[in-house]
Specification:
- By secondary structure, this protein is of the alpha+beta class.
- The chain contains six helices and four strands; from the N terminus they run ααααβαβββα.
- Helix 1 packs parallel to helix 3.
- It is elongated and about 50 Å long.
- The chain starts with 7 loop residues before the first helix and ends with a helix.
- The structure holds FE2/S2 (inorganic) cluster.
- FE2/S2 (inorganic) cluster binds next to helix 5.
């Protein structure tokens, strides 16, 4: 996934582009995360000012939703599906293995900055569960051994 490096100027541009929609806070935050890969804490006062909200309000939303990341993601993002179909076909074991294998909990990034581990709740390929997504590419029928192959590739 290609993202733009965070800067106040680029952040201000993204905020302004999305501030005009109805109920703009979540769209603005999603746009920031889409553009930069995370919501930089320095964006919080910029968003608050543009949307006439308190910093506490914006910060509260950023930290409430687990989808928002406040630190840059790793070079690669691996997301394990935690949806029902995947859970019923080895997904729980896969989730535990993924965290142990990479040495981070969901939402974390390996110390070398190489991989961020995320969880998602259905990738739309339940028939091929359990599934993972690597940098936006969905992969089905991923057991523990296949996960290691994918991570090592
Ligand atoms: S529940 Fe995992 S792909 Fe649907």
């Amino acid at each position: 996934m290609t993202t733009t490096e965070w800067s106040v100027e680029a952040g201000t541009r993204v905020i302004a582009e999305h501030a005009g929609v109805r109920g703009p806070l979540l769209p603005v935050l999603h746009a920031l995360q889409e553009e930069f890969g995370y919501v930089d804490p320095a964006a919080v006062p910029l968003v608050a000012k543009e949307l006439n909200l308190s910093r506490a309000d914006v910060h509260g939303v950023v930290t409430f939703y687990k989808d928002f990341r406040t630190t840059p993601p790793g070079a690669r993002t691996v997301a394990v599906c935690r949806g029902e179909a995947c859970q019923s076909r080895g997904g729980h074991e896969l989730a535990e293995h993924a965290q142990a294998r990479l040495g981070v909990r969901f939402g974390g990034t390996t110390p070398d900055g190489g991989t961020t581990l995320d969880q998602v709740f259905c990738l739309g390929m339940c028939a091929l569960s359990p599934a993972v997504m690597v940098d936006g590419r969905a992969i089905g029928r991923v057991d523990v051994a296949r996960f290691d192959e994918v991570v090592d590739a």
